[in-house]
TrEMBL record:
This is Pimeloyl-[acyl-carrier protein] methyl ester esterase. Substrate binds at residues 22, 82-83, 143-147, 235. One of its GO terms (cellular component) is cytoplasm. PANTHER family: HYDROLASE ALPHA/BETA FOLD FAMILY, PIMELOYL-[ACYL-CARRIER PROTEIN] METHYL ESTER ESTERASE. Belongs to the AB hydrolase superfamily. Carboxylesterase BioH family. It is found in: Cytoplasm. Monomer. Pathway: Cofactor biosynthesis; biotin biosynthesis. Residues 16-242 form the AB hydrolase-1 domain.
Length: 257
């Protein structure tokens, strides 16, 4: 039996659905909830198979998007970080009438390097997939280390992310491998170009997983969208730069009717 973890908090008058990245869970947002709660009704979700959302196997991107969208309030803003950005983008593309606006964080419509398109080398993701079978903790720790690499608080931020993972049930290897496969194979560049909702894209200047070279290319895919690159941030700008990050969300919310 499947059970999707969904928690709502906050006293604001606008709904904001937050989707975490690979290997993690909704606990990752705890560092910014106090800043956002006065402005939004926050919907904190563990993606299917992650954290407290139990009973799921590996899902396709469409299946994951539908599972989450079926619980969401109509007219919400959707925020997706990394893998969560792929899920949120899929929801916005398939259900534009239900999504008021989309925010992607350290996400790319195509995570894998592909010709002139910058991204993660396919062999790196394949290496993580192979390591998962023998040592879950080490694999996730390495991946989290890459997410904070280069920031002033890199070690502290990586330790905190690891504590978020370990605070909840460990995802099944099948689910984690399926998530890596989504990062490796998904390509939403054409969907992004046909997206019919307001879009804000947030990046870290030092991000080694979604390199800043991708920003002008996504600008071309989605010329009506806005992009912000946080100097000094890596793959998790909401952790390293919470005040600037939350201000960007509030500013964007005010522009969305």
């Amino acid at each position: 039996m499947t059970s999707l973890f969904w928690q709502t908090t906050g006293t604001g008058d606008r709904d904001l659905v937050l989707l975490h990245g690979w290997g993690l869970n909704a606990g990752v947002w705890s560092c910014i909830i106090p800043r956002l709660a006065p402005h939004f009704r926050l919907h904190l979700v563990d993606l299917p198979g992650y954290g407290r959302s139990r009973g799921y196997g590996a899902l396709t991107l469409d299946q994951m998007a539908e599972e989450v969208a079926s619980r969401a309030p109509a007219g919400a803003l959707w925020l997706g970080w990394s893998l969560g950005g792929l899920v949120a983008t899929t929801v916005a593309y398939r259900r534009p009438q239900a999504v008021a606006g989309l925010i992607t964080v350290a996400s790319s419509p195509r995570f894998c390097a592909d010709g002139d398109w910058p991204g993660i080398r396919p062999e790196v993701l394949e290496g993580f997939a192979q390591e998962l079978r023998s040592d879950f903790t080490r694999t996730v720790s390495r991946f989290l280390g890459l997410q904070t690499l280069g920031t002033e608080s890199a070690r502290q931020d990586a330790r905190w992310l690891k504590s978020v993972v370990l605070a909840q049930p460990t995802p099944e290897t099948e689910v984690l491998a399926g998530g890596l496969a989504l990062l490796r194979a998904s390509d939403l560049r054409s969907a992004l170009g046909r997206l019919d909702v307001p879009l804000l894209r947030l990046y870290g200047y030092l991000d080694g997983l979604v390199p800043r070279k991708v920003v002008p290319l996504v600008d071309e895919c989605s010329p009506a969208s806005q992009s912000i690159v946080f100097a000094g941030a890596a793959h998790a700008p909401f952790i390293s730069h919470p005040a600037l990050f939350c201000q960007a969300l509030c500013d964007f919310s005010q522009t969305v009717t």
